[in-house]
Design a protein that fits this description.
mainly alpha; single chain; 14 helices; globular
Length: 286
């Protein structure tokens, strides 16, 4: 006589998981909570090429991580403005961990060979990672402001409005410098009252303030920790940029990017950009 088959719930119960919930007719499921129906159906490519899903998913995952980076940076900026440094330190530490995950994503994408990519690259048209608005918002949040990039997003008025608002907000370095001043360290008024939508230029008073912090760590422990968190973030971002550049070089060489940029040449140039210049200069001077 054939034994009756156990359903999954019975099987779990037999393994000592009697309390496991298996009836979700009236309750929310894991998939519903995460909207997996939307998430996992968002990889429709433009070709039937085997490697196009890899290309799409790597970029989608990176955009999800960038969304979380923006969430954490926004929280950190808000906390620093309210002199709540400790919560900001936790959030900035999390940003660095997220950055490590994004960097590793390039290792997966680099398994795409030039021959494979060329078979579907033309289908991308002018779409390019250069147009990632979340990446631009990260640059804005870190204080790197270049107004000409806003033109890329004029097609979508709502998105342009969001980006313009972010563009005109103080960046992480702006609020850190203001925290230096509130802690009694002399900062030039022109820096404290500067137009935060303009590119930041290194300033002697800011450099001297950070040098004071590093020379008297015990007296300025929180500011010292904050400075090192900023350096962590910039260090990881530059590593991300480097891996991006090398991955692009590995796959398309020195071809022009799909978005019209000079490709590897452009990516090499941005490696020379600094977000927190005085925190790097002081390492030579102290």
């Amino acid at each position: 006589m054939e034994k009756p088959k156990m359903d999954h719930g019975q099987n779990f119960a037999a393994q000592g998981e009697a309390g496991l919930h298996t009836d979700f007719k009236e309750n929310m499921t894991y998939g519903e909570y995460l909207h997996l129906d939307k998430l996992l159906s968002a990889q429709d490519g433009l070709t039937n090429h085997h490697d196009e899903p890899l290309f799409i998913m790597i970029h989608q995952v990176s955009e999800l991580w960038m969304k979380l980076i923006l969430h954490e940076l926004g929280g950190a900026i808000s906390h620093i403005e309210k002199d709540e440094v400790q919560p900001a330190l936790k959030q900035l530490a999390r940003v660095s961990k997220i950055q490590a995950q994004i960097i590793q994503a390039w290792d997966v994408l680099s398994t795409l060979t030039p021959a494979e990519y060329m078979e579907f690259r033309s289908s991308l048209g002018n779409a390019s990672g250069f147009q990632s608005y979340q990446y631009r918002m990260i640059e804005f949040a870190l204080g790197y402001k270049t107004k000409h990039v806003l033109k890329i997003y004029e097609k979508d008025e709502e998105l342009l409005g969001i980006l313009t608002k972010a563009f005109n907000k103080p960046g992480l370095y702006d609020v850190a410098i203001r925290k230096l001043a509130r802690s009694g360290l002399p900062i030039d008024e022109q820096i404290l009252n500067r137009d935060v939508s303009s590119p930041y230029e290194p300033n002697a008073s800011v450099l001297e303030a950070w040098k004071t912090v590093y020379r008297d760590v015990d007296s300025y422990w929180e500011l010292y920790q904050l400075a090192e968190k900023l350096v962590d973030i910039e260090d990881w971002l530059q590593q991300w940029r480097f891996r991006h550049m090398k991955t692009v070089e590995r796959i398309i060489g020195f071809k022009t990017g799909t978005g019209g940029s000079s490709g590897v040449h452009y990516l090499k140039k941005v490696l020379d950009q600094y977000f927190f210049p005085e925190l790097w200069t002081l390492r030579t001077e102290i």
